[in-house]
Amino acid sequence: MDPDVTLASVVYWRRSLWNGRRCVPVLMTLDQGRLRARDRHGAEVFAVPVGQVRGRLTRLGTLLLTVDGRRYDVVGRGSDISPSPSPDQRRGLDEFWAHRRPPSGDGPGFLDLAFNGAAAFHTRSWRDALARAGAAVR
Predict the structure, then answer these.
(1) Quick one: which of 49, 58, 82, 115 has the most CB atoms within 10 Å?
(2) Model confidence over 89-102: pLDDT tens digits?
(3) Looking at residue 21, what is its pLDDT?
(4) Going by DSSP bridges, is the β-strand pair 44-49/34-38 parallel, antiparallel, or unpaired?
């Protein structure tokens, strides 16, 4: 468990398997041992100590998180009809990284980048960061 693990990005909360409009952007941040998610309007979806998060990464790249007994299906990018991240989410992401060093390491594979917008790499990065921070994810 490493409390110094930090990560922030806009991911998509897949609230419906079939309706792309319900695959909505959330600004998810991991900092100082807490995982937070905020929706397009700035409302908090959840904010918990990372030790209270459970989850797993599916073969198709969906990160299934359980927070306070509720499941959140998180994907690396939305559908073509999903809402875009709000200006506040983009600003929040910029502010988060303004005084932090972004993580270094490997990048997405060619096929993931070319055909999937690096979505699988995105959710894999979250799974790895959460595991290093002490969440029960696999």
Answers:
(1) 82
(2) 999 999 999 988 87
(3) 80
(4) antiparallel
Check residue 86 and report its DSSP letter: P
Q: Answer for the pair 11, 55: CB distance below 8 angstroms, yes or no.
A: no
Beta-sheet strands, E only, within 2-126: 7-14, 23-31, 34-38, 44-49, 53-57, 63-67, 70-75
pLDDT class for 1, splitting at 50, 70, 90? Answer: low
Dist. CA 6–CA 19, nearest whole Å: 31
d(CA 105, CA 96): 19
> Residue for token digits 């073509």?
80
pLDDT in tens, 66-88: 999 999 999 998 888 999 999 99
Question: Which helix (H) or strand (E) is 136 found in, with range?
Answer: strand 136-137
Q: Between β-strands 34-38 and 23-31, what pairing exists: parallel, antiparallel or unpaired?
A: antiparallel
Q: What is the chain's alpha carbon radius of gyration, rounded to the nearest angstrom? A: 14
The rounded Cα 103 to chain-centroid distance in angstroms is: 14
Please name the residue that has the structure tokens 């299906």: 73
- pLDDT band for position 9 (cuts 50, 70, 90): very high
